[in-house]
């Protein structure tokens, strides 16, 4: 085990992409480090009258292409390295999709499930109080991430408006519809991945009915299961943080989602769904055409990558496959549709939300879906073409695609030859 950080490991992908492009060293120097990361402590009043302090961060990794954009995670294992790495990935994700944004991210180290609703509201408002001068519609625009949701974004938007004495819905995306949220944001991450796979189905060898295994059954995992199920695929295995279930002839997705929404774990529903409970680690090894990691980062590693039987891995989670595991998958001929493309539907509809907030004119769901589909297909096709032309993995191709755009923008601020001359 090396002592390099998650960010060090993420930067391997930047270096790899750079080796395929003729780019100025200035570009790499700029993208190797986060521009700014603010750390603070949120001190909130608990329901029992005591006060409790929580570590919190906001990182603005790079804003060359526009205001920084990225979610806020509430998780007991959050660290500064994780926040900065997620912000790095957001920088590349926005560039892959050609959104006019840089990358950011935030987190609070907390187990939100251990808080009451009123404590959660105080924590969310405290986060916005702490970072009100960092965020802003033209500076840094947060959104939901793991264990945060529309309700939390609504509290944060309200707090920002109280602090600034304005009504600025564009300060945060993923809001409730009633506060300026966009139609179609709730399933956008899954839908973007779904459009991508469907568009490239023939190239991926996934035409016709497919079997699908999904790791993580939250926002991204559930909506993907629903869309894939409705499209005639079989969802043969799913997992959450407490366990995994397997049913080779297909799970009843509607009942699973209903149970999850009622606060149950997937393994508790196995018997009534006619499914077998399997060890969580075995989920990635089940027989399925498509494996969808939709939980947390670094879940597929050198220790388990060889067991994967799927033809294609769709990374709805951020960073679920380590760089070493990536090599194993490539050697096995498994195509990985990488996070910075595969889960970019979420930030794309967040962008639509921001655009609608700023123009004060709102699109219907049909228009949102059509725009998302067009952008996923356009950038997905461009990335696929780079992979074919250069004989590189789809991940490398996505980084090359993004880095080209970032480099053009960074160089437009002044190039090394100009200053050296
Ligand atoms: P979520 O909180 O709604 O769901 C996370 C799910 O992962 C939960 O079902 C949880 O039980 C499960 N999980 C946690 N640890 C697990 C483990 N060890 N094994 C199996 N399952 C486990 O979060 P989400 O919004 O669906 O995000 C999931 C992933 O997708 C994250 O990596 C996130 O960064 C990424 N992502 C989400 C969005 C979005 O719009 N929601 C956008 C882009 C990327």
Give the arrangement of secondary structure elements.
Layout: H1 6-18, H2 25-31, E1 36-45, E2 51-62, E3 68-75, H3 80-96, E4 102-109, H4 117-131, E5 140-144, H5 150-164, H6 188-199, H7 201-204, E6 211-215, H8 219-230, E7 234-240, E8 243-246, H9 253-261, H10 270-273, E9 276-278, E10 290-293, E11 312-314, H11 323-331, E12 335-337, H12 339-342, H13 345-359, H14 365-390, H15 394-412, H16 416-420
Parallel strand pairs: 3-4, 3-5, 6-7, 6-10, 10-11, 11-12
Antiparallel strand pairs: 1-2, 2-4, 7-8, 8-9
Helix pairs in contact: 1-15, 3-15, 4-5, 6-8, 6-13, 6-14, 13-14, 14-15
Nicotinamide-adenine-dinucleotide binds at residues 144-147, 189, 215-221, 239-241, 280, 294-296, 316-318, 343, 346.
Write down the Rg: 21 Å
Count every beta strand, where a strand is a DSSP E run of 2 or more residues.
12
What is the architecture of the largest domain at the second tier of CATH? 3-Layer(aba) Sandwich
Strand content: 15-25%
End-to-end distance, in Å? Answer: 45 Å
Largest sheet: 7 strands, mixed
What small molecules does this complex bind?
nicotinamide-adenine-dinucleotide
Strand order in the sheet with the most strands: 9-8-7-6-10-11-12
* CATH fold topology of the largest domain: Rossmann fold
- What's the mean pLDDT score? 95
What is the overall silhouette? globular
């Amino acid at each position: 085990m090396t002592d390099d950080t998650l960010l060090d490991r993420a930067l391997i992908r930047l270096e790899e992409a750079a080796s395929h492009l003729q780019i100025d060293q200035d570009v790499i120097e700029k993208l190797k480090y986060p521009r700014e990361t603010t750390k603070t402590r949120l001190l909130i009043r608990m329901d029992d009258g005591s006060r409790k302090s929580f570590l919190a961060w906001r990182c603005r990794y790079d804003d060359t292409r526009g205001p920084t954009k990225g979610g806020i995670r509430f998780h007991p294992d959050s660290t500064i390295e994780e926040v900065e790495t997620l912000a790095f990935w957001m920088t590349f994700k926005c560039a892959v999709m050609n959104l006019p944004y840089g990358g950011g991210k935030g987190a609070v180290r907390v187990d939100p499930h251990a808080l009451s609703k009123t404590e959660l509201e105080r924590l969310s408002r405290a986060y916005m109080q702490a970072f009100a001068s960092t965020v802003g519609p033209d500076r840094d625009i947060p959104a939901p991430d793991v264990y945060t949701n529309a309700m939390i974004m609504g509290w944060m938007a309200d707090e920002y408006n109280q602090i600034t004495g304005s009504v600025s819905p564009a300060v945060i995306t993923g809001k409730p519809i009633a506060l300026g949220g966009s139609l179609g944001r709730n399933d956008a991450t899954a839908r973007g991945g779904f459009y991508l796979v469907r568009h490239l189905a023939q190239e991926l060898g996934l035409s016709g009915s497919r079997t699908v295994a999904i790791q993580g059954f939250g926002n991204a995992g559930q909506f993907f299961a629903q869309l894939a199920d409705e499209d005639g695929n079989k969802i043969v295995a799913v997992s959450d943080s407490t366990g995994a279930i397997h049913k080779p002839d297909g799970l009843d997705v509607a009942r699973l989602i209903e149970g999850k929404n009622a606060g149950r774990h997937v393994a508790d529903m196995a018997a009534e769904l006619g499914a077998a409970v399997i060890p969580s680690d075995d989920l990635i090894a089940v027989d399925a055409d498509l494996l969808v990691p939709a939980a947390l980062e670094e879940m597929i590693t050198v220790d388990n990558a060889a067991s994967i039987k799927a033809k294609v891995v769709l990374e709805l989670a951020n960073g679920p496959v380590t760089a070493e595991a990536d090599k194993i998958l490539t050697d096995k001929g498994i195509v990985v549709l990488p996070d910075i493309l595969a889960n970019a539907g979420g930030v794309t509809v967040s962008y639509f939300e921001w655009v609608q907030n700023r123009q004060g004119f709102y699109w219907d769901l049909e228009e949102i879906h059509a725009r998302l589909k067009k952008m996923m297909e356009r950038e997905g096709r461009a990335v696929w073409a780079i992979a074919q032309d250069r004989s590189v993995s789809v991940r490398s191709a996505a980084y090359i695609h993004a880095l080209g755009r970032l480099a053009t923008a960074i160089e437009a601020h002044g190039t090394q030859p100009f200053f050296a001359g």
